[in-house]
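Give me C-alpha cells for this 631-residue protein.
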Amino acid sequence: MKWPKRRRAAGPVARSRGSWVARSVVYGSVVQVSGVTGDVSVAGGEPPLYRVEVFPQARTRLTVEEARAQPARLLLARQGVVPFTGRAAELARLTRWRDGAPPVSVLLLHGSGGQGKTRLAARFAARSREAGWDVLQARHASDPAPVGPALVGPAAVEPAALRPTAVGPAARRADKTGTGVLMVADYAERWPVADLLELIRDAARQEGRPARVLLVARPAGAWWQPLANRLDRMGLEAQQLRLSTLADDPITSAGDLFAAAREQFAAALEAPEAHGVTPPSVVLSKDSGFRSVLAIHMAALAAVDRVRRSPAQAPAGLDTPAQFSAYLLNRERDHWQTLHANGRVTTPPDTLGRAVYTAALTGAMTYQDGRAALTAIDACRDGDAARLFTDHAAPYPSSTPHAGTVLEPLYPDVLAEDFIALTTPGHEVEDYAPDPWATGAARRLLAGKGGLPGWPRHAFYALASASARWPHLAEHELAPLYLTQLELVLESHDDDAVRLGLTVLATLPTSVLQRIRVPNPLPGFAGCVSFAAISAGVTCGMLADGEDPGIEDPGVENLDDEDPYERARAYLRHAERIALTGSTEDSLAAIDQTLAILLPLPADERVLRRVKALKERVLEALDRTEEADQE
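Here you go.
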C-alpha cells in the first residue's frame, strides 16, 4: 500500500477522530482499507500531524564515570539532578487554569532559554496526574522520535492499532475515568500554526471530559498572536504565562540557586572538595547573563568540575556565561579526544565536532536525512557518513534507540547554541578555538536541504536563538541568509518556527539593515507570516535607528526620524505589505499606528486617502474571514 504525500488544504478537513490515544499517530484525515489483496494506492492520503505519548515520569541517572566524562549531561532536565524549587505562584496559576470552567482551554508557557520551562511543565504534569488527570504529550510529526513499532521502507503503513480511529491492544486510550486530560506540547514555536490548530481542535473531541493544552515555547512573538486571535474567533480560551527569572522569585536568590546546584553536582561527581566553592561575584551581581536558572547551574557545574580536576587551583577565569559554556564544551572535546585515543572511535575529534555542529542545527534525523545533511554541510564525504554516525553515537547516543535515528544533538539547547557560536569564527572567547569550517555552514546546510521538512524549522531556530546572544553570528551568519538568500527564507513558509529568527533583524546594526531588501509579495503570497515578520523587523529597526533600512520603495529616501510624516509612511508601508499577505490583525495595528501619528498633524490628504482605503480593504477582509469561521 502506498500513501502519497500532498500538501494539506488550508481549511478544515473532514475527519473521523476521537479521544487522544497514547502511543498513537494522528493524521490529517483517516482512510481505512480492508478486505483487499495486492498493492493498493490510496489517493488523497494525508501525512501525519503529530504523535501522542504518555508524558514521561521516570528519570534516568548517570553513573559517576558518565558524569565525569561529560559533566554537561548533569544539566539535562530529564536528569533532575538539582531538586525543583520555587515557582509557587506559577504552579498556582497553572492549577487555576487547569481547574477552570471552560471545557477546552489553551495556555502558552513561555520564556527565554534556560528559565526552567521544561522543569515547571514536568512538575505541573506530575501534580496533575496526582490530581486524577490523564497527562499526555504531543510531538510534531517532523520529530523523528518513534511511537509504537518502527516502520520499514518508504511504503510502510503504520498498524491500524496505532491510529486514533482504530484503537487496538498496541495503543492505550487515555483513562476515561480521569478528571480530565492534559496535553503538553513542548517546542510549540517549532510547530506549523495549522498543525497546532489541529491539535487544539482535537482537544474538543475528548468525549465530554475537560481538556487542557499546555504549549511550552521560548517566544510568544509573531507566531502566537495570530494563533491566539484565531482561537478567540473559534470561541476557545487562550491564556499565556511568561516565565520570569527564578532569581527574582521571593523565596530564592542567585546565591541560593548556586549553592543548591553546587551541592548536587558535587555529590554526582563525587567531589567532596567542591562543597565549599563560592559563587563568582558576577553570579550575584544581577548581571543580565545570569538571570536564568540554567546560566547559574552552568556556573556551579563548571566551578565544581574545575575544583574536582584541580583541587589546588581556584576556579579563576570563569566570570562570564560565555566562559562557563566554553569550559563545559571543552570538557566535551576532552571526551571526544579520549574516545579517539582509546580507539573507541576512529573519527578525529575535529570531524566529530562537525557532526555535533550539524546535529545542533538539525536535531535528530532519520539515517537518510542525516547522510544528506552531513554531505550538504560538508562535514564529511557521503561514503564516510555511516562511520561518522556510529562514532557520533558514542558520546551522544539516541534518546530513542529503537527509532533508527542519527545525530542526537547536544543538550541542553542553550549549550548546543553556544557550541554553534563558539565553533563559528568571530567571537572573542580566548579559551575556545573556533573551526574555520563553520563559516557559512548553516547556509550550506539550508541551501542543500533538498526539501527535507525538518531542516529549515530546527536550523533557523537554532541559528536565530544563538544569534540573539552572539552578535558575530547575527551579523556574519544569520544576516547573510536575508542579504543573499532571502528566497530560501521565504520558501520555508510552512515552517512557522522560522519567525523566531526573523525578529533578530530588529537588533542588527543599521549598516546591516540598510542592505536588506524586502520585496512586496503577490496577493495571497504563501509565505505571509514569514514575510510579515521580516517587514516588522526591518520597520522596527528603521524607526529605532532613524534610518531607512533600504526597503525597496521608489521615491523614498532615508528616513528622517524628526519628521513624523516619514515615520507614518514607514508604518503605512509595513501595513500595506502585510495586508497583501492576509495578516489582517497585524495590518490594522500598523494602520492604527500610522493614524496615531498623522491625525494630530496638518492633513496630508494623499497619505490619509491611502491609509483610509487600506483600512477599508483590511476590514472587509476581516469580515470575510469571520464569516468563514462561523460557517
